[in-house]
Amino acid sequence: LYIMYLIDKQRIIRKRRADLEQKDKEIKLKEEQFLEERKLKEQEIISLQNEKLEQQLQFKSQEMANLMINFTRKNEILIDIKHELYKISSAMKEDSSVKAKRMIITLNNRIDSNIASDDALKRFEEQFNLVHNNFIKKVKEKHTDLSTNELKMCAYVKMGLSSKEMAPLLNLSI
Fold first, then answer.
1. Which of 40, 71, 109, 140 sits CB 3.0–4.6 Å from 120 for a disulfide?
2. Is the pLDDT of residue 70 over 70?
3. pTM of the predicted protein model
4. Do 172 and 155 form a contact (C-beta atoms < 8 A)?
5. How far is 119 from 114, CA to CA, in rounded Å?
């Protein structure tokens, strides 16, 4: 009986060890599955973040294009107003109204200063450099002899604008 008791005890011990080993294997397998799922979720999070960044980049690019289009339209309108003022001024040469002439000259000077204003251009350059990793700055460093219009053209090419879209922005013919 004692021998049977020892054999039975050994069998129970072996069975517990086998059960423990089986549970360890299951735990390791679940840990591996958890790590794989975690890795997949992290990759999904990264891809979603990249997608969000790309959308923000597209939004900023579109915002820059709209800013430049508005800037160009404003300048075109101001130039048209300036031409009309010249017509009025030349028509008023026959008239001797000094006060009206001074007002026209003052208005003309304000238009000139507004056209020459580089605030919108500076904002565009800042936004563009922000979106495109200091592209304009790098181009300026490599090619110091480029004019402002040539730098604008480089920026528009970088934005993917066609020559038809660039022409009005640069006040050039297609």
1. 71
2. yes
3. 0.51
4. no
5. 9
